[in-house]
Amino acid sequence: MRFYAQLLTASCFAVLQTLSLATPVPDIFQEEQFTRRDLSVETVKRELGPKLSKGSLIFGPEDPLYVNATERWQTKLVPKIQVVVQPAKEDDVPTIVKYSNKNSFNFLAVNRGHGWTDDVGAFKGLQIDLASLTAITIQPDKKSALFQGGVFGELVIKTLWDQGYVTTTGSCTCVSLLGPALGGGHGRFEGKYGMISDNFIKLNVVLADGTVTEASAKKNPDLFWGMKGAGHNFGIVTSVEQKIFPRGPATWHYHNYAWTGDKLEKVFTEVNKLHNNGSTPDELSVEFGIFLTNPSISTTEAILSYTFAFQSSAEVAEKYLAPFNAIPAVTNTSGDIPYTDIPGIQGTGIGGRLCAGNRSRILSTAGSQVYNITAERKIYDRWNWWKAQYPDIGNQATMIHEGYGTTAVNRDFKAEDSAYPFRDDHHLVLFSVNIDQAPQLADKAKEWANEVAQIYNEGQPGRLPNVYVNYATGGEKLENVYGHEAWRIKKLKELKKKYDPLNKFRYYNPIVKNGI
Description:
Vanillyl-alcohol Oxidase, Chain A, domain 3; 3 domains
């Protein structure tokens, strides 16, 4: 069973109801004057099947393929998929969209199902499964590659590495390339090359009416701007041309630690020094610091697990890690391995803890520039209180601190040149608690998650709350997700009117929820 499922790609979603618009709806967007109440798999096969390429599949809940095709990372709220259509070629996607529009079917494009926003739970209709669109073609100049919309992290990383190249991807290899990319896309190479979307050259986009267009600096530059940070709102990306780079060192250095809670202040002090508020060493790729339960170390208190990855030799990396080596650790392991093995050793590879699917989770998140050590201590102490009071959820919780090498994010790219709004956020935090074993404690888990976010944001006086769109849970203020500058929100809403006037793509942290 494909546990990693389908991640939301390029835009994803559609909605049936017509919205109140400030401008007339173009004829091309007008739907038929009837609605089929139910999606019949056999009807879709009969009507749509002959229009699709050989090898395309259409199936429903009774088919053995359905479970894998609709599996998701987050199961607290899931889309209601009546029919799955798996196109064999890119050209099939606009055909599926036009068919769905003609018959007033909602459609949802999916690749690997790691998107966790609550908004997706309101969807009901036809899923466009991009899993077969996995071609990767290095271009003749060897400076870019064309990636189809169904590719995912591990496939991209290994395919390019074997040919001597790398590109920007998300840090978890189980997720798609485009899912995180359309929200900006944090990853291990952003310190050198910027975020994933910073490396877009052009995107082939299927719009809400089923037409196909190119988004690039030369063609539809306004749409290109929007796709780089808010792309889930505008269309389905069937392929993207993206920059690639020589792969660099044959091996990377990793170092993993586990500390008890009394070392928290020392650890975060050194992490802040290492990052120097965004001026990170060129060799630093990423570090993840995680609060979690490890019964082999303590049954009553959380531990602080840290993993560092450097694009360098051990000799270079360990100079930066010397202060951490001086902090007595419960466990301490390190080594030099190819980049392709780094995600696995850091727990973000396929089969790793962070990629485990089919879980019902309560989540909260925040972005920051530096770690507030007082806030971290308060969250940690309260963590142990929650763990003692409610062990059924306390033992199932994690809080991930993501610290990337971010030098190129601001050095090489201007904030106004893309829809991604929070380039000054050098760190992300994500709190998660699995409630599968204690669904009766869902409200308590939510209370805990909200408390963590509140403490974290209160530890950043003078800064408005920022939420990375790919980590947003669906209830956040629009400005907290897409930027606090009024011009950003205005521009995004104008793009929605132009490219998606019926707001079909509205189930992934939408710019517009109830009207344009």
